[in-house]
Amino acid sequence: MMMLIGLWCRLSANPPGVVPTDHYNFLTSVGEPGTGRNQLMRPQGLAFSPDGRLLAVTDTDNNRVCLYYVDDRPTATQPLLLKAIYSGLWPWDDRHHFKDSADKYRERDFLEGRNPNYLAGRAYQNGQAEIRPGEAVPMDHFNLPESLTWLGTDTLLIADTGNHRIKAMKLNGKVIWILGQEGWKDGYFHHPLGIDADCEGNLYVAEPRSNYLRDIGLDLLQRQRVQGNRMQKFSPQLKPVGRLGHMHHMSGRDYRQFKNLTRVWVSAGGDIYLADNGNHRIMVFDQTLQKKAEIGKWPLYRLRYPNGIDGALDGRIAIADTGNHRVLILSPDYKIRQIVGKFGTLPGYLAKPAEARFGPNGDLYILNSGNCRIDIFRNIETSRQFPRCPRHEPPPPEPVKEEPKLEELLPPPGDQPAGQDSF
Question: Is the dihedral of CA 91, 95, 101, 105 positive or negative?
């Protein structure tokens, strides 16, 4: 009986017992498969600027980032207007000096089923353990960027996944710093997949499980479970200040163990949401990295490889349930309010959605990765969503103490003895 109910849940847009409020209805799509303008190839990351006027997308298989202007007027015929494209198809070229043999020699290996622009090897990873200025290494190309977030309204933070680093880039294309290199120490990364920043400027980076450690004498089954997963927290000065999970511990289902972390999202209140993809759940932690909740299953529905997470100002939460080809809308107490979409290629249908974000006026923007497009669902109840972070009023300036004038230092004329100079 339970197997029949589970099958019904996967084939239906809404399982029995869930009464959708029909807040979201399909409006339009932007993008199509390809490498040209207004075309995408397996996009994985999507994020609004803090003021909601710009939308950035990681066009992963095209190795570039696309920036859109958001026109949220009800009468807008083009809700997303392409404003800029950063980088290009090839992540490697001859404009840098090679540091080691891994950089000098690469070959096309095991390309079957992969993007033809993908090369095996590690690019630009030597000597980047510290924050470095942009002129030291080639910065204007990516290697399979997976996700991104905003630091203010004019700076993009991009998880340059294939290069094992985080890149900070201004909207004029200038890279101001990079962070990390391939490795498992604190401050190093191994294919960072998720990235977010909180209202105080702290940075959060999620990394998945590595396949195995070589040459340590373990059998094959043990090797594939040796290296775990982690989420690293960095201060606004980009210093490691916290961590959940560990890259050298076995993965598992304990609340501090994970299996393929893919996304991280931090609410305005400071709660940390982690997409524990392999365990089919969302883990919630507070600012002190203590567990608050585990989201994964309901009486008649269960997550399957969840990824992107976002929250609205009224407490609603959107989860891109990639394996079920749907997006869940949850209430603040994590109850299902609506299930958006189902598998397919038609308008309003989804295929492996990677991200879901609440846009201006409460509309839902879904990164329909398998269909290489952005789907927009209109919210019947218009609600203000930006700015996300509360604006802290600056403290009033301290009064400037003026230096006393010479006349104020001199005694009054009536107090001076007769015939004596005041000096």
Answer: positive
Q: Evaluate the CA torsion angle 79, 82, 83, 88 in order and state its sign.
A: positive
Burial of 177 (0-12, 13-18, 19+ CB in 10 A): middle
Cis, bond preceding 387 (omega within 30 deg of 0): yes
Cα–Cα separations (whole angstroms), residue 31 to 24, 34, 165, 366: 20, 9, 28, 12
Residues contacting residue 195 through CB under 8 Å, at least 6 positions apart: 147, 148, 149, 157, 158, 159, 166, 203, 204, 205, 206, 264
Q: Which two tokens stand for residue 133?
A: 């200025």
pTM of the model: 0.78
Q: Are 229 and 209 in contact (CB under 8 A)?
A: yes
- pLDDT tens, residue by residue, 349-380: 999 999 999 998 889 999 999 999 999 998 87
**Which domains does the chain possess?**
2-391 (2.120.10.30)
